[in-house]
Amino acid sequence: MLPSLYGNNLERIESWLLKGGHSTSCADILCRYIYNGRNKKLLPQFSKTVLEQLENEFTSELPKPSSIQRAKDGTIKFLLELHDGEKVEAVLIPFYKRYTLCVSSQVGCAMNCDFCYTGTMGLKRNLEAGEIVGQYLFAYEFLKAEKGSNEPRPNIVMMGMGEPLHNFEEVKMALKVFTAEKGLALSPRQITLSTVGYLPGLKRWHEMPPVNLALSLHSPIKEVRDKLIPVNRGWPLPEVMEVLDKLPLHHRQVITYEYLLIKGMTDRDSDAHELAKIILGKRAMINLIPFNPYPGSEYKKPSTDDVERFKKILVSYSLMTMVRTTKGDEILAACGQLKAKQLSL
């Protein structure tokens, strides 16, 4: 199988041109051609030989939709088939002015988090950078076909299948393509990467483009977090927080701490007070996520009153706190519900 055309940034295109004996003077135009709808008006600006080699050495195929499901709230979930037959899910989530695309970074996941449907799959393989970017290109083309060519480019949350920092090199390249002026030219502020605290990747965070970072914290209590996020046993929360505290943040940038509210397990008043102690003094936002049930899960979703009570405790500490609105749960498209499984509608 040929490598994906969409796993290349300007630097890689320049290297490819030099290797083929070509001038790098057309590299900028070639990137515009690749990432801006393959506009045929640009073709006269580089040689026929370059174009032929490009088509012979790379594939421009995007992931193919095996199914497309729609929720009543406007959420759209894609089950996308990759070149080897493996499948991942990507989710378009509607917000006020534009969509956000939840992107997968792996087929399955090795983290085995107890609250997450993806974790029941195990890890099948990492996605290549071109497959990560391909999810975005497919979803954006889908949106333009439905909404019109003026539809703004979606924001990105790397919160789909997989632990992004466990696939560090390919995710880094995908983020470079997303944010490069000669790529998709998204602002780093439009992208958020979520990790459960995979410490080897967090220690290399400085290598990433300056996108937003979110930590799946989910419990301040070691025994509870050990159960929910098994990697906490090897890389405990205090060590993770120590690394996060040293990360350079840009003006007005904060780290988002995602907190899963599970009825009777993580939604107690004492949990809220312990969480506040950990976050106080940090440039932080807390994002409360009511648990989204999935088939076979032992956990329950808390009541709306319990969620509001928990939030009020955090706000009493003057901590910036939001509750994530559940979207797409009827089609298993909400946080923690992805499993690359075709459902009967």
Could you please describe the fold and organization of this structure?
This protein is of the alpha/beta class. It has 2 domains: 5-57, DNA polymerase, domain 1 (Orthogonal Bundle), CATH 1.10.150; 64-331, Aldolase class I (TIM Barrel). Helix content is 30%, strand content 18%. The chain contains 10 helices and 12 strands. The protein has helices at residues 10-19, 27-35, 48-57, 129-147, 168-179, 199-202, 222-228, 237-245, 269-279, 304-316; strands at residues 64-70, 76-81, 87-94, 99-102, 106-108, 123-126, 155-158, 191-195, 212-216, 255-261, 284-290, 321-323. The strands form 2 sheets. Strands 1-2-3-4-7-8-9-10-11-12 form a 10-stranded mixed sheet, covered by helices on one side. The protein has a two-stranded antiparallel ribbon with strand order 5-6. The mean pLDDT is 90.
